[in-house]
Amino acid sequence: MSFYKKIQVNPLTSVLIWKIEEDFNELFRQIKLKDISLARLERMKSESHQKGFLSIRHLLKVAGYSDFDLFYDEDGKPHLTDGKQISITHSNNFSAIIVGNQNVGIDIELQREKITRIADKFVEHEFDYLNKESVEYIKKLTVIWGAKEAKYKMCNSRSLSFKDDMKVFSFDLADGKGKASVQQNKFEKEFNFFFEEFEGFTLVYALEK
Fold this sequence. Notes:
Elements: E1 3-10, E2 13-19, H1 24-29, H2 35-43, H3 47-62, E3 70-72, E4 78-80, E5 85-91, E6 94-100, E7 104-110, H4 119-122, H5 137-155, E8 166-168, E9 177-184, E10 187-198, E11 201-208
Antiparallel strand pairs: 1-2, 2-6, 3-4, 5-6, 7-11, 8-9, 9-10, 10-11
């Protein structure tokens, strides 16, 4: 078992993290999948995606659920049968879920120099406070991407633009938290987000205010 860490965000909200160290067979034989999940798993061409999928089911087990308690709506947003809110993420050899009573979102990303080359695609307002020469630039970009990805999952709208409709306000890496907003036409929501780093990854999770 490679359960990595639990973060108790508040009394009703938890983040669970899995470090994927097992091979596919070890992950597969320890859980039960409903038929629709098994079919989805078999369609995945990447073993990395398969292991990420299975590790999420192991995290559900840690949280007291099973694959049979998880379902997806027509837009692909995950839900739990008991009505609690859930968000899911997977990157390389880490996966994570957040479960709570309010709208939640989560993302995990490997910190890479590559993000500087695509910053123009998801950053607009944030360039006002970012310093491209700073040693913190890649880490801050990774937090911004993670916060926007988490918000995107929470809003469940495929039409949202990371660059034009989402704002991440100025934050300090040392604080481990920040504020963000989504505005599109008459739609407007505000969020608090939190983040931490481990083993070269950045984990970001968000709660609707």
